[in-house]
Amino acid sequence: MSNSTGDKPSTPLHSVSVAGAVIREDGRMLVIKRRDNGNWEPPGGVLELDETPEEGVVREVLEETGIHVEVEQLTGVYKNMARGIVALVFRCKPTGGIELPTSESTAVEWITEKEASERMTEAYAIRLLDANKIHETHVRFHNGKNLNAR
Predict the structure, then answer these.
(1) What is the rounded distance in angstroms from the CA atom of residue 100 to the CA atom of residue 90?
(2) 136, 74 contact by CB (below 8 A)
């Protein structure tokens, strides 16, 4: 595939993000209300070049919520087709800390599956719902709100 000037082929650019589906023993899941857009989402963000996906999840969850976690399992890969963002979501268990709003979140809460479906867009709620299915990994795509939409 060449670009219009006849130069070398262009490579599509993607961004890789990580998110933690942090689930307590009682089944409640950790979510943040993002400061930039007001959406409820699992804590996460862009994976840094010098860190593993697991290290990125631990860092992002702590930065956004004040909660320390242990990464258990990759539960899903989600691609935002509109923005070219590939998100790796990991089920995590909390190991300490106190949930507090941060520079990136206006609220941090532990919610149920039902509350996740009510508060969050489908593309983000499914990440938590998928993470509750032990020993399964899902690959899905969305348009930022709805699953299987470009």
Answers:
(1) 21
(2) no
